[in-house]
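Lab meeting prep.
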Amino acid sequence: MNLIGAPYQIIIGKQTEGDLLEFKEIGKESQKINLEKIIKVIKEQKVKN
């Protein structure tokens, strides 16, 4: 995903725990957060741009 320039990655795999998904933004470490928080982060970034 980094090679094609995707600004966000939602990773569902072995690290997925319950309702927490692995979420990664370009230039930041991945974090485990729920889907509602992921949506909020993306919407806030969209408003800024």
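Slide two material, second protein:
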Amino acid sequence: MGIFDFLKQSDDKGDAEQKTQEAYSELSTGLDDYQNPTWSQVESALKDIIDEEDSFATLSFHNWGLEVDTLQCIKDEKGYTIEALPAMETENFGKIYHLDGLSYEDTVKRFEEFYEKQKVTGYKEFSQDSFE
């Protein structure tokens, strides 16, 4: 290993530590990850979801101290499904609140609210599962 490889590994560790402490948002699509995405990137990711290909979009707000810090979306033949995932620091961690059969427009509205206000209105009335 050369000196530059050694320094790069140190920088990678520093970046990982910094990410765990700083507030940032992240968009994941299975193909790409975007740190601090723009609204147009989020909207494009929602538009690109195809049910036959098991694609998805996940928008997360890390280290913001939110009640729900992740909103996920998939699509099937019945429409879009969104899942609101409570933050690890909350009493509802491990629960999955999902709303099925949404139109594209309703999905975009819910993601836009989450993107702009970091809130998911009425998620406790969604259907509920658990991953514990």
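Talking points for slide two:
The mean pLDDT is 86.
The CA atoms of residues 33 and 101 lie 26 Å apart.
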